[in-house]
Amino acid sequence: MNKKVILITGASSGIGYSTAKLLLEEGHIVYCTARRVENMRELKRLGGKVIFLDVKDERAVQKVVNTIIRMESRIDVVFANSGYACAGALETVNIDDAREEFDVNLFGVARVIKAVMPQMRKQKYGYIIVTSSLVGIVSTPMMSFYPASKHALEGMIDGFRMENKESGIKIVKIQPSFINTEFINPFMNSLNKASKAKNAEAYKKEFEFFRKSSTKLILSSPSPEKVAKVVSKIISKKNPKKQYSINIDCKLCKLIKRFLGDSAIDKLMAKTFFR
């Protein structure tokens, strides 16, 4: 096995944690970063280099990258996985919360990419893997700003990939839909907060249906280990695909949108979340 130096953001839970754990078990050198350092004790026990990082802090991002380069002389893989979601109808979500989503989901990824690119360009190789989402392709109700941030991320990464076609750097999006992680807890907390906001009464029925349907979907979804295996597969390939749809529903939604259009997607989402 070719041992790689890997930076993972959002490694304290869910997809990031499972991916860090798998890659450590495979023998790679993994720098595990997140705000909740206390949740990464097991990763440290497995040999992970655990570092506190808030991707909203550009200087901190650059400092972590500089540390890795100083210690390892290279960075082979970046898995930009940090994410934040707040649920609720558009009218009921606080704009500051929505701004936080964009700061983490879009600009946080941009900060990490900007920090690692000079080194990867110098190396003339590397993998930049970004966690996008099904909702970066088709929107869902009661999550308006989260899909907006992921749509923006899709556009940003597609453009970035085109800009670096000849660089030798592999730029890959992974597109999971619902994954059974502890993401459900802050997600439901944000939904409860939005349900108490001004104008929330107008969406009372929608809140009730969405709370039940989304909980059921998350709890019945694949584990984050499924995504971790895809990341492991990507970094083992000389020429990985540009994007990987993780769940079957992601692949189906792409086909429905392409061949049947937005009206079919609207009906599918209404049936999924409001029944």
UniProtKB/TrEMBL annotation:
Q: Which InterPro entries match?
A: NAD(P)-bd_dom_sf (IPR036291), Sc_DH/Rdtase_CS (IPR020904), SDR_fam (IPR002347), SDR_oxidoreductase (IPR051911)
Q: Name one GO molecular function term.
A: oxidoreductase activity
Q: Extract the Gene3D superfamilies matched here.
A: NAD(P)-binding Rossmann-like Domain
Name the UniProt key words of this record, in alphabetical order: Membrane, Oxidoreductase, Transmembrane, Transmembrane helix
Where do transmembrane segments lie in this chain? 125-146
- Superkingdom of origin organism: Bacteria
Name the PANTHER family for this protein: SHORT CHAIN DEHYDROGENASE, SHORT-CHAIN DEHYDROGENASE_REDUCTASE FAMILY PROTEIN
Q: What is the name of the protein in this document?
A: Oxidoreductase, short chain dehydrogenase/reductase family
User: Which organism does this record belong to?
Assistant: Clostridium perfringens (strain ATCC 13124 / DSM 756 / JCM 1290 / NCIMB 6125 / NCTC 8237 / Type A)
